[in-house]
Amino acid sequence: MSALFSVRDLRLSFPDRAHKPLFGPAPRNEVLKGFSLDIPEGRITGIVGESGSGKSTFGRVLVRLLEPDSGQVLFDGQEIGHLDEAALRPLRRDLQMIFQDPMSSLNPRHRVWRIISQPMKRYGRGGTKADAIAALEKVGLPPTFAERYPHELSGGQRQRVGIARAIALEPRFILADEIVSGLDVSSQAQVLSLLKTLARDMGLTVAFISHDLSVIRHLCDHVIVLNHGEIVDHGPVVEVFEAPKSEITKTLLSAIPLPELDDDWFDEA
Amino acid sequence: MSSLHAHTLDVIKLNIALPNGHRLLRNVSLTLEPGEVRALVGESGAGKSMIGKSVLGILPPNVAITEGEILLEGQHLNMMTPPTRRKIVAQSAALIPQDPLTALNPVRKIGPQIIDPLVRIQGWNAREAETRALDLLDRVHIRDPKRVMQSYPHELSGGMRQRVLIAAAFAPSPRLIVADEPTTALDVTVQKQILRLIRELQQETGTAVLFVTHDMGVVAKISQKVTVLFAGKVMEDAPTREVFTNPQHPYTRALIAATPSYADLERPFSPVPASLIADLHAQIAQDDLLYRGGRI
């Protein structure tokens, strides 16, 4: 199994404006503290951690919405970490993203078919209404949804439109950043099983960011646990869950309220 | 405001509706005893938040109670004049909202936001109220209560803001707290801390809690009783223990199955089956016909 992404000694910091002195530059806050890892091709990799662990920042480096301070990001053998926008353009179609909040990532003034077809046109992958309807079908939405606006859809349906927009471009990599956190359990289950099926059928590589390990366990093949910008645990999902190496992983595991009775749950860390 | 009445809250055959007659709650009844946590669980649109809002009198302007009664410590809320009702509710009930950022005034410091209601509504003097606020902030494990009182909401993290609101809710020693998805916006480790905190304070003070959530996992941990709702109708009302050992209604079973667990790794994700949802909607349509028939 080959790696689609190889990340080496990745570092990224943001200026800490809250502590900026009156004169001179603001001190920098290290968000990613120099880690290395591979993301295997054709698999779903989960990235977990608490808020502030750097998981979203890391994801944004992978799709090159952010440029790292130093270190390498190899995408299919090609160094993309420090490419400029023009050099990235041919790669953009391959690196797609599904966002946490579909209400702010889908244009409220456009009908669903236009939301899906615009990027298709942009990258020369068709972009007729029929193409958009075909993409909707893949995510289990009937053709009538093409004429609707985002506000006319439920949360789960909106998230499916987000998935349709990403897969319509036939990318090689999809970053899914907390895409089910806003949904209730039943829509959550629908969106996750859809993503799992699509990834398998299309041979997609997916990075799935979440703070919920119970979701990761069912969806992902591999998992990376981040804490304060460092990797504290990683490996195949089964191994990390059966034998977590780090206290952080154990805490995350025990924090999830499972749908079963457990009188001692509050007494655990 | 003491009463010999045994229940903290009785909701009896409550119906609320939009102006066009569409019902959002359908004959909902439930009781809450002192010191008890009752979970209201259901998917989005099930009306679970509407129950809490009806009790607190904060329904959206276009939604009205069309039938039914609400008794808070034995007092009929919907027979009171609005000012009396507001006074009674403010004195014995409080809300922990879902989104602490919109619930707090962004341009006022935390301190006055906790203290003012204690002075204006509970009639405490300013010094008493300040001592109480500091004490409660300490109880919710805020390290430097004095500094937090001087802070603005944006200076605190999401978990800290939710702690502040929990402190504010418990400060006047209410008999009832409506917790409306108080942990949905938080990540799992902070969620556990917040749930633990609500439980600690609630057990210590004997406050009854109406806990609105869509997460069967949270239900299992925090509540003693459960009301399962679908489209504004009660599907099941039972002790939490029974709901998880022997769920009676197929919808309850479906909700539990839809919640991810560690038990069976190979088990696929299982949304609530569309056929079950269609059946339930058909039943509800029939209920609505009968209900209208009865009213005419």
Automatic annotation (TrEMBL), chain A:
Tell me which domain of life the UniProt entry assigns to the organism this sequence originates from.
Bacteria
Offer an example of a GO molecular function term for this protein. Answer: ATP hydrolysis activity
The stretch of residues making up the signal peptide is none
Q: Which GO terms describe its biological process?
A: transmembrane transport
Pfam family membership, one: ABC_tran
Q: Gene3D superfamilies recorded for this chain?
A: P-loop containing nucleotide triphosphate hydrolases
Q: Which organism is it from?
A: Celeribacter persicus
Q: What are the alphabetically sorted keywords of the record?
A: ATP-binding, Nucleotide-binding, Transport
Q: Write down the InterPro entries for this protein, in alphabetical order.
A: AAA+_ATPase (IPR003593), ABC_transp_ATP-bind (IPR050319), ABC_transporter-like_ATP-bd (IPR003439), ABC_transporter-like_CS (IPR017871), P-loop_NTPase (IPR027417)
- According to UniProt, the name of this protein is Peptide/nickel transport system ATP-binding protein
The ABC transporter domain is annotated at 7-253
Family designation = Belongs to the ABC transporter superfamily.
From TrEMBL, chain B:
Q: How does it sit in the membrane?
A: Peripheral membrane protein
Task: Give GO MF terms, alphabetically.
Answer: ATP binding; ATP hydrolysis activity
Q: Keywords in UniProt for this one? A: ATP-binding, Cell inner membrane, Cell membrane, Membrane, Nucleotide-binding, Translocase, Transport
Gene Ontology BP, a term: peptide transport
List the Pfam families: ABC_tran, oligo_HPY
- The segment(s) forming the ABC transporter domain are 6-256
Q: Which SUPFAM superfamilies match?
A: P-loop containing nucleoside triphosphate hydrolases
Matching SMART domains, A to Z? AAA
The family database entries (InterPro entries) matched by this protein are listed as:
AAA+_ATPase, ABC_Ni/Peptide_Import, ABC_transporter-like_ATP-bd, ABC_transporter-like_CS, Oligopep_ABC_C, P-loop_NTPase
Q: Where in the cell is it found?
A: Cell inner membrane
Q: Does the keyword 4Fe-4S apply?
A: no
Q: Which GO terms describe its cellular component?
A: plasma membrane
Family named by the database record: Belongs to the ABC transporter superfamily.
Q: Which PANTHER family match?
A: ATPASE AAA-TYPE CORE DOMAIN-CONTAINING PROTEIN (PTHR43297:SF14), OLIGOPEPTIDE TRANSPORT ATP-BINDING PROTEIN APPD (PTHR43297)
This protein is called: Peptide/nickel transport system ATP-binding protein
Native source species: Celeribacter persicus
Which lineage do the record's taxonomy fields give for this organism?
Bacteria, Pseudomonadati, Pseudomonadota, Alphaproteobacteria, Rhodobacterales
